């Protein structure tokens, strides 16, 4: 019996950059058979089949002929996941048929990739189960995902700096206590990625912004930021933010009340990254909850 793959915590930014890991490229390729699960590999060498995400569901569409297929968009601080559930994912389909958006949700599913033509790749999740959660659980997931991603970033950067490849890299990582799975993943990723340093830089920046959105700062700066954020939030509520507000009009109103435009934009970015508001369509922002 095949063991069930562990569901990995991964940010949308890294997940959307995943590509298929061909069976011939796997270290245990000689033992593969038709029942072997499909695997994806990220630019950092994360190998995954199943994924666990927590974020804000901001869009939901019934795309089947009899409400038997759902497409959802789940946002985390770095980007968005595209999720599908059909008649063979009954539990997830029932959930999507009743959930009210926007809402914080936790979801487990299988990673899927579709490449209709060379250079055109779509990565998504086929949902297995989903539940409504609260903001605290979402924040905990962000911190956990950040810690695991940073570990991969450090290992990947170490591999780049060492210049080792193949067996040399395996021996080097073995001495450092890096898992064999991540070692193999990084070895494969180094052979595939054309500009790994650029992706590392982008992902680090995304994680930094995502953690900032959780108000994990301390001291006076945190207090000042919290006051500014609350002021902008209150203004957004006053302007009907639960129904949706024109972003340009909101900024103009905030500026007319003495709030610098740069500060408004910074706070709104923080709210978007933190899942406290979202864009149901371009130019409109709406509060969650």
Describe the structure.
This protein has 289 residues and is of the alpha+beta class. The protein folds into 2 domains: 1-214, Beta Barrel (OB fold (Dihydrolipoamide Acetyltransferase, E2P)); 220-287, Winged helix-like DNA-binding domain superfamily/Winged helix DNA-binding domain (Arc Repressor Mutant, subunit A), CATH 1.10.10.10. It contains 9 helices and 12 strands. The protein has a 5-stranded mixed β-barrel. Strands 2-3-4 form a 3-stranded antiparallel β-sheet. A 3-stranded antiparallel β-sheet has the order 10-12-11. α3 (135-162) runs antiparallel to α6 and α4 (166-176) runs antiparallel to α5.
Write the SSE topology.
Elements: E1 7-9, H1 12-15, E2 19-20, E3 40-41, E4 47-48, E5 50-62, E6 70-76, E7 79-85, H2 90-98, E8 103-117, E9 120-132, H3 135-162, H4 166-176, H5 180-192, H6 196-212, H7 220-238, E10 245-246, H8 247-256, H9 261-273, E11 277-281, E12 284-287
Brief overview:
With 289 residues, this protein is an alpha+beta fold.
Our count of domains comes out at: 2
Order of helices and strands: EHEEEEEEHEEHHHHHEHHEE
- Which structural class fits the helix and strand makeup? alpha+beta
Helical residue percent?
Answer: 40-55%
Q: Examine the coordinates and then state which fold CATH places here, giving the name of the CATH topology of the largest domain.
A: OB fold (Dihydrolipoamide Acetyltransferase, E2P)
């Amino acid at each position: 019996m095949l063991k069930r793959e562990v569901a990995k915590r991964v940010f949308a930014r890294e997940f959307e950059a995943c590509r298929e890991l061909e069976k011939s490229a796997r270290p245990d390729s000689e033992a593969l058979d038709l029942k072997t699960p499909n695997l994806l590999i990220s630019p950092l060498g994360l190998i995954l089949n199943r994924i666990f995400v927590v974020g804000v569901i901001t869009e939901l569409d019934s795309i089947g002929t009899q409400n038997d297929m759902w497409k959802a968009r789940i946002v985390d601080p770095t980007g968005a996941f595209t999720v599908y559930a059909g008649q063979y994912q009954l539990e997830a389909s029932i959930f999507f048929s009743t959930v009210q958006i926007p809402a914080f949700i936790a979801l487990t599913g299988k990673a899927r990739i579709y490449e209709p033509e060379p250079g055109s790749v779509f990565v998504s999740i086929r949902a297995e189960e989903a539940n409504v959660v609260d903001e605290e659980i979402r924040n905990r997931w962000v911190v956990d995902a950040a810690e695991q991603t940073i570990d991969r970033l450090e290992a990947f950067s170490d591999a780049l700096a060492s210049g080792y490849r193949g067996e040399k890299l395996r021996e080097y990582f073995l001495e450092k206590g890096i898992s064999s799975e991540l070692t193999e993943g990084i070895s494969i990723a180094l052979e595939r990625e054309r500009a790994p340093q650029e992706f590392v830089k982008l992902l680090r920046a995304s994680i930094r912004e995502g953690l900032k959105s959780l108000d994990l700062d301390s001291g006076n700066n945190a207090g000042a930021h919290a006051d500014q954020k609350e002021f902008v939030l209150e203004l957004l509520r006053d302007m009907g933010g639960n129904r949706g507000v024109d972003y340009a009009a909101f900024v103009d109103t905030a500026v007319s009340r003495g709030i610098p435009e740069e500060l408004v934009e910074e706070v709104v970015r923080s709210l978007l990254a933190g899942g406290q508001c979202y864009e149901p369509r371009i130019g409109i922002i709406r509060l969650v909850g």
